[in-house]
User: Fold this.
Amino acid sequence: MAAPSPGPRKVLTLSPEAGCRADAPSSRRRGLLWHLRDKQSRLGLFEIGLGHELHGLTCMMQAGLWAATQVSMEHPPMGLPSEEDFSEVLTQVHEGFELGTLAGPAFARLRRSLGLAEEDYQAALGPGGPYLQFLSTSKSKASFFLSHDQRFFLKTQRRREVRALLAHLPRYVQHLQRHPHSLLARLLGVHSLRVAGGKKKYFIIMQSVFYPVGRISERYDIKGCEVSRWVDPASEGDPLVLVLKDLNFQDKTIDLGSQRSWLLRQMELDTTFLQELNVLDYSLLMAFQPLHEDERGPGRGLIFRMARSVQGAQSPEEPGAQNRRLLPDVPNALHILDGPEQRYFLGLVDLATVYGLRKRLEHLWKTLRYPGRTFSTVSPARYARRLCQWVEAHSE
Assistant:
């Protein structure tokens, strides 16, 4: 990780009074209520209340993020972006732990460009409500959380993944400016957390692709290959939220109508960018949401709900590269496309795996183990091409 400039800052910070305190009677009573409604109201997302093994960790994350966002509210980045915006490291010392904010000014600028108010960001990630644990079908050892309103997604990361994300951050921001309707997940923050006497843990915050969650009927994680790409579906009536994979999709189709050409072009733009970063193993997240009757049919849907677009930087060397579209006036519209019958949530996630020596050796091993079969670890060029071909073959 590049040495920060003008240098790391360490600040003694008191946690907000609204923070999690396991010894508070009111917190104990609330914890019991949260536990009782756990699996019922969250459809398989588990509230991290008192007694949960991750309760202490998430309380520290909430208190730390509340204080970190307070800094960006009190000292918003001014003027033109600088190299220091991408390299600053701010460490805030709390009772029992430290929280680091990496490239804080750069992410504050990015959140502002998305129209995300810092007050809303702070309220969603701070101690106002419990985080939700998401039981992922991923084979990684990462932990996955959602803010209590399910708008923001938090994921623990390895140090080498964080280093890759920060190294690519200036180009990532430039890509979003050039292609404001990009399918790339919106990364909103990178942080470290060290409990007294322990090792640093790293985590990222991103805008959830699956938001708003109402009426979502199916969720998929697509890599465009077949090895280890099947998930046993939940039994009928089981409220557990599962993200299915490529082989579960089988003969399904993404029916986009006139939006299909936009999607294919944007997939090409985004995967070409990731190829240039030498990145692979990312996923296309996808969810289905049936449209209401009054949202379907010619002359309806997007036409009546168009409200805004996103302005990006002009790119004279890439004519037409912006691939603009009008956005419906709904939350998280960047990741929404409407077809004749369904609304689709689409986003490219897990953008931190670099095709280095480790992955090249994994590619060789899988070639020997799975002859004639498709697997995730291939060259970035092949990975990008294969995922675009998957979308083209499964859309109409």
DSSP finds twelve helices and 16 strands in the chain. Residues 9-207 form a domain with the Phosphatidylinositol Phosphate Kinase II Beta fold (CATH 3.30.800.10). Residues 1-6, 21-43, 299-307 have pLDDT under 50 and may be disordered. Residues 111 and 188 are 6 Å apart (CA to CA).
